[in-house]
From TrEMBL:
InterPro entries: DNA_bd_Ku70/Ku80, SPOC-like_C_dom_sf. It comes from the Eukaryota. This is Ku domain-containing protein. Residues 2-114 form the Ku domain. One of its GO terms (molecular function) is double-stranded DNA binding. GO terms for biological process: double-strand break repair via nonhomologous end joining; telomere maintenance. GO terms for cellular component: Ku70:Ku80 complex. Gene3D superfamilies: 2.40.290.10.
Length: 140
């Protein structure tokens, strides 16, 4: 009997068989810029992108997209934020979103532990550092 891969999605176990892998699985892609085709410049396409950016700004929404950095990379999720430059050019700014696997937890000692409280010489050193970094008294 063949085993079926399962993945946890929230509190649900989702089966993932060979057909699912072929249809939806990760396919190794190389880092590239692929030319799909040449097409005539279209004012309508420019208007459509501009309208999409303006509508997303008006609705205060972002677009979530699939992004692959290179052949060794797994697909990532990226948020595209609509923006309008100072010169009035509509554009998208992309920000890669983290997955749970990207989280690296670090255990710090509790803040209320007396052994971690700063001593007077530590506090004096920090006050001196803050005073030295005060740019309001800087000479140019």
């Amino acid at each position: 009997m063949a085993s079926i891969l399962r993945y946890k999605f929230g509190s649900t176990i989702v089966p993932f068989n060979e057909e699912d892998r072929k249809e939806y699985g990760w396919i190794k892609e190389s880092r590239c810029l692929k030319l799909l085709q040449f097409t005539k410049r279209s004012q309508d396409a420019c208007v459509a992108v501009s309208a999409l950016v303006n509508a997303m700004i008006a609705e205060d929404t972002v677009a979530l997209v699939r992004y692959v950095y290179n052949a060794a990379s797994h697909p990532r999720i990226m948020a595209l934020f609509p923006r309008r430059s100072k010169k009035g050019v509509e554009m998208f700014v992309g920000l890669t979103l983290p997955f749970y696997e990207d989280f690296r937890g670090i255990d710090f000692p509790p803040l209320d532990d007396p052994t971690t409280e700063p001593k007077n010489h530590h506090l004096s050193a920090m006050h001196a550092l803050a005073k030295a970094m005060d740019l309001s008294k800087a000479y140019l």
